[in-house]
Specification:
By secondary structure, the protein is mainly alpha-helical. The protein has helices at 3-14, 40-57, 60-77, 97-114, 117-133, 169-182, 188-201, 212-228, 236-256, 263-278, 286-297, 327-340; strands at residues 24-25, 28-29, 34-35, 38-39, 94-96, 144-146, 151-152, 261-262, 315-317, 320-321, 324-325. It has one domain (3-351): Glycosyltransferase (Alpha/alpha barrel), CATH 1.50.10. It is built from twelve helices and eleven strands. Helix 1 (3-14) runs antiparallel to helix 12 (327-340). The chain is globular and about 45 Å long.
Length: 353
Amino acid sequence: MLPNVSLAGEWLLRSGIQQPSGGVARYYRVDQGRDYAISTEITGYAASALVYLHALNGGQRCLAAGEAAARFLVCKAWNAAGCAMPFEIDPPRFTYFFDCGIIVRGLLAVWRATGNDEYLDKAAALGKAMQRDFAAPSGEFHPILELPEKRAVERDALRWSRTPGCYQLKAAMGWWELAEATGDGAFREPYDRVLEQALGGYPEFLPGHADPLKVMDRLHAFGYFLEGLLPRAGEARCRAALRDGIGRMAALLSEIAPRFERSDVYAQLLRIRLYADAAGAVALDAAAAEGEARALAGFQAASQDARVHGGFYFGRKGSQWLPYVNPVSTAFALQALAEFHRAGGKPQRRLLI
């Protein structure tokens, strides 16, 4: 395994970002010397990342940590009485459609690695709750519900996470993977519905805001749309959207980067280049990928502080690092760099973090 990938994996395992409960904090604040609150979404991402690391090196520490994340989700976070997965458990005020899809995929990753059917069962229960509880009369899926009533939260057109949009396709991949895992084709229908909406609406998603810094944030969300196309990457319309979307994402990233850069955007763009190439949808632009890998590697933190060393900074404004060492940025970065430097073989869609 590459040294920087190994170092990032050690940060996930040893930095304390994963709490003793198995839950994973949203980020570490370097300037304040503390972790932010545990997030169920971030814990789901961490479960997927740790299973991916286990697939790379066979390390049992990674698998044990991934299973600890899954146990947190099914035993501590999941509200069995209300069939709901809260955004945070202290207090459990909201549930997010997007987060639920990421958690479904994290639980499925651990299930595939361990064979423990409890994770599959909870993933299926959550997938059914997503389809039932978030459905809007318009045919869309509400982005946020208030608990315990499961009442839709008021939308905000200027905040992508507070409105339905093409980015929801990444979460809808959870349904596609549930159909693969369970053999229940009924899970395909909601994925296909979100796919149709995403293909129709994605051209208006970017730039989507007058502030270039907000556009960078929207690039992160747009990367989710491109990733969500992968189950149907062989279809002509999805190939066309991948080709168009990669070009638009790369152009806007290059334009805004001198003012504001996010490591996860570099990682997402590099990953989708690699995965789209592996799927035969969009040929890899090797020079562009090389530049993105080089830029991404520069976000890895070096410090005497074990809570920082090896993780990836969330972002940078000009020459100033933002004070967040972020587990999702780290997970995306280690996967992007590992796949970029892979010697033989192709990236596997089910292992996409």
